[in-house]
């Protein structure tokens, strides 16, 4: 923590440490945040939509997110884009520009998404872990050895790891996990693309693809086609979901321009990568592609590389889980401390000596609450271990409220656009269109989860 009075420290106009970021560093940070496990579902999403609608959907989502990101950047400093006060997170921007009930809407949406994502990460990690086990068994004992196992024990193992890591009291002590998670996400994403390209280049697999994706009456029924198409839109929304990097650019008259440039570059690079990953995945496996791209290489000669990628997925998700769960932990702990300030159970800490590591501060409430959270998240994941439907639901939940509705509403108010003007109508029409996409994708994902639970 740097205080405003500390000598030798450069400060910004708000008295806090000076920002030194450039458009290049900011764009690199955004790309790191965006590329994650959602990329593994894009081949399946392309298969549901086909060669034309699939890449087109990726481009449309990219454009919408780019456009609303530009609006958000304009509202980043308030009340004036050049001299306004500094905002540190998305919630600060909402509070500064909108206030009132929309701040609560933002908060609820953010925490719901964080909780849902930790459940989704548990499912994804379990799939990757069981894939490594199945693949190793198949190549050791043969294809008739009955190697396909349940995901449940692996999700329990993942939950136990998170149970331990969740007891780290300070979020900033997890910075190493964030860095490691970013490295792992790039690693498995590039490996997935490389494996798909290799499979296509080898030929001989005779996969079937089509302009319209999976074929009605051959691969799926008409009803299944419609529902899976909508789930695919939710999966694409999940892949593009990210928190805009706010106020990392150094101050100056060109700051807004630099942040727009950083966001544009990041979204362009990510979109190229996503289209490449989705298209190569669909080309490699065709209409029979699995929901998670990395589960399709069990019988390939490069299975060991796929195993490396799946291990990278698990390591990435171990860190990513904590990055998402820690704000939830701290929010509940803060609210409970404010409500029961005299409670010894909530406030008291005890020191436990750890050899060669000093003393570890234990708070009983923190231990109990965080343990309950991880256990419940793991149980829900075990009950709903359905990768694409779960990602579709999370993507739909975050897309409209956080990515479209709030930035649009902020920009209209920030620029004082008349409510019944043509410009306002266009912005609201975009928001309504995205709301419809969100609702139908969410409905399809919920329906898919229900059908999957009944059939399991």
From TrEMBL:
The chain crosses the membrane at residues 26-46, 52-73, 111-132, 176-197, 226-245, 265-284, 304-325, 367-387, 393-412, 424-450. One of its GO terms (cellular component) is membrane. The keyword Plastid does not apply. One of its GO terms (biological process) is amino acid transport. Pfam families: Aa_trans. It is found in: Membrane. Residues 19-450 form the Amino acid transporter transmembrane domain. InterPro entries: AA_transpt_TM. Keywords: Amino-acid transport, Membrane, Transmembrane, Transmembrane helix, Transport. It comes from the Eukaryota. Signal peptide: none annotated. PANTHER family: OS05G0424000 PROTEIN-RELATED. This is Amino acid transporter, transmembrane domain. It comes from Dillenia turbinata.
């Amino acid at each position: 923590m740097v205080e405003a009075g500390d000598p030798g420290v450069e400060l910004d106009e708000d008295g806090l440490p000076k920002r030194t970021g450039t458009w290049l560093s900011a764009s690199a940070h955004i790309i790191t945040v965006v590329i994650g496990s959602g990329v593994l579902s894009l081949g399946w999403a392309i298969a549901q939509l086909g060669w034309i609608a699939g890449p087109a959907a990726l481009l449309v989502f990219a454009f919408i997110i780019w456009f609303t990101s530009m609006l958000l950047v304009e509202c980043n400093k308030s009340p004036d884009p050049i001299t306004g006060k500094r905002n540190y997170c998305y919630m600060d921007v909402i509070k500064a520009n909108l206030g009132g009930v929309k701040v609560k809407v933002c908060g609820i949406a953010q925490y719901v998404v964080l909780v849902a994502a930790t459940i989704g990460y548990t499912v994804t990690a379990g799939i990757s872990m069981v894939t490594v086990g199945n693949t190793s068994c198949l190549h050791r004992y043969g294809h008739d050895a009955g190697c396909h196992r349940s995901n449940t024990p692996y999700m329990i193992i993942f939950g136990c790891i998170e149970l331990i890591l969740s007891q780290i009291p300070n979020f900033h002590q997890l910075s190493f996990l964030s860095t490691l998670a970013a490295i792992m996400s790039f690693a498995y994403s590039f490996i997935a693309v490389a494996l798909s390209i290799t499979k296509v280049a080898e030929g001989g697999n005779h996969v079937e693809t089509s302009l319209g994706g999976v074929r009605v009456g051959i691969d799926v029924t008409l009803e299944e086609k419609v529902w899976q198409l909508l789930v695919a839109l939710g999966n694409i929304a999940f892949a593009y979901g990210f928190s805009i990097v706010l106020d990392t650019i150094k101050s100056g008259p060109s700051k807004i321009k630099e942040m727009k440039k950083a966001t544009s570059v990041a979204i362009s690079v990510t979109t190229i990568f996503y289209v490449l990953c989705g298209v190569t995945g669909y080309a490699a496996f065709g209409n029979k592609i699995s929901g998670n791209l990395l589960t399709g290489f069990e019988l390939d000669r490069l299975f060991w590389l796929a195993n490396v990628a799946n291990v990278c997925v698990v390591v990435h998700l171990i860190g990513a889980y904590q990055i998402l769960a820690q704000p939830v932990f701290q929010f509940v702990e803060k609210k409970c401390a404010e409500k029961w300030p005299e409670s010894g159970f909530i406030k008291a800490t005890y020191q436990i000596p750890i050899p060669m590591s000093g003393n570890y501060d234990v708070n009983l409430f923190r231990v109990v609450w965080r343990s309950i959270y991880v256990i419940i998240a793991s149980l829900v994941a075990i009950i709903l271990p359905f990768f694409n439907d779960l990602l579709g639901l999370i993507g739909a939940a975050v897309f409209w409220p956080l990515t479209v509705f709030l930035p649009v509403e902020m920009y209209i108010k920030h620029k004082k656009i008349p409510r019944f003007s043509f410009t306002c109508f266009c912005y609201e029409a975009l928001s309504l269109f995205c709301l419809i996409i969100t609702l139908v994708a969410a409905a399809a994902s919920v329906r898919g989860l229900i059908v999957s639970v009944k059939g399991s």
